[in-house]
């Protein structure tokens, strides 16, 4: 199996399930023109996140790592009219592109972008005693994932779904020899998930236009 095969199957699914509408194409084009890295989730993965959010009837969603807002739009489309997406991004340029994209997609009124480093931003949400989130999507810097988990748990309730991107890293997650900081970061995160008695967790390997990677999926017990 090769990247070309994975690409053609993703293309097939995108067409079959109409996953790449003109708004989403414009959003990706805006990200490309602004010079953002092409590391957003894929259309199939975006719909996976949207379905997770809809199946837990998420009214409040927290995203850590906005980039240009692509995954956030998928998530925001799962919200009811008065629902809220809070998404954290420390690069001002990314946050600006994301703001335009959320507005373009017609979800802007339900989205708050916090343009700050994720750890202090999360700590501040905890200090403000904001209502807990129903779904958390972790997708920022990989060495930060362990802390994002600990902080997210303090912003969760029983039944909150916590999903994290990029936990397989071409299979490197199971290579105990590696000292690559992103791989070590996700492995420490997975160990923390496993040790957390208040969570039920699994992880799924994925292939597609984003290569070979995967998601962890947890629910707060
Ligand atoms: N979720 C996005 C992709 C996120 S890429 C999507 O699928 O569309 C990761 C993003 O996290 C980048 O925009 C990066 O600038 C941001 N990021 C990295 N470290 C961060 C930190 N410490 N705090 C907040 N954002 C961070
Ligand atoms: C990278 C980050 C991501 O969130 C992703 O989905 C793919 C790649 C990266 O930092 O290389
Ligand atoms: Mg990612």
How many domains is the backbone divided into?
1
Structural class call reads: alpha/beta
Count of helical stretches: 8
What is the fold-level CATH name, i.e. the topology? Rossmann fold
Bound molecules: S-adenosyl-L-homocysteine, 3,4-dihydroxybenzoic acid, magnesium ion
One letter per element, helices H and strands E, the order comes to: HHHEHEHEHEHEHEE
* Strand portion: 15-25%
In CATH, the homologous superfamily goes by the name Vaccinia Virus protein VP39
The Cα radius of gyration reads 17 Å
Separation, N- and C-terminal Cα atoms: 38 Å
The stretches of 5 or more residues where confidence is low (pLDDT under 50) are none
Largest sheet: 7 strands, mixed
Q: Give a count of the beta strands, DSSP E runs of length 2 or more.
A: 7
Query: In CATH terms, what is the architecture?
Result: 3-Layer(aba) Sandwich
Helical fraction equals: 40-55%
Main-sheet strand order equals 3-2-1-4-5-7-6
Residue-averaged pLDDT, rounded?
98
Q: For the record, what CATH class applies?
A: Alpha Beta
Name the shape in a single word.
Answer: globular
Supply database-style keywords.
221 residues; alpha/beta; Rossmann fold; seven-stranded mixed sheet; 8 helices; binds S-adenosyl-L-homocysteine; binds 3,4-dihydroxybenzoic acid; binds magnesium ion
């Amino acid at each position: 199996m090769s990247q070309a095969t994975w690409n053609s199957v993703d293309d097939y699914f995108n067409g079959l399930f109409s996953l790449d509408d003109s708004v989403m194409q414009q959003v990706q084009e805006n990200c490309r023109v602004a010079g953002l890295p092409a590391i957003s989730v894929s259309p199939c993965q975006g719909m996976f996140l949207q379905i997770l959010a809809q199946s837990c009837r998420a009214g409040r969603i927290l995203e850590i790592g906005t980039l240009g807002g692509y995954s956030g739009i998928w998530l925001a489309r799962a919200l009811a009219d008065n629902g809220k997406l809070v998404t954290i991004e420390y690069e001002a340029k990314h946050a600006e592109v994301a703001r335009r994209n959320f507005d373009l997609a017609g979800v802007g009124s339900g989205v708050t972008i916090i343009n700050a480093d994720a750890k202090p931003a999360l700590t501040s949400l905890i200090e403000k005693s904001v209502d807990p989130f129903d779904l958390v999507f972790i997708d920022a810097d990989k060495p930060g994932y362990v802390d994002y988990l600990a902080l997210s748990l303090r912003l969760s309730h029983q039944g909150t779904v916590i999903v994290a991107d990029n936990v397989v890293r071409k299979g490197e997650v199971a290579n105990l020899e590696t000292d690559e900081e992103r791989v070590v970061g996700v492995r420490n995160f997975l160990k923390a998930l496993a040790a957390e008695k208040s969570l039920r967790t699994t992880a799924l390997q994925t292939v597609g236009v984003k290569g070979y990677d995967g998601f962890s999926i947890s629910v707060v017990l």
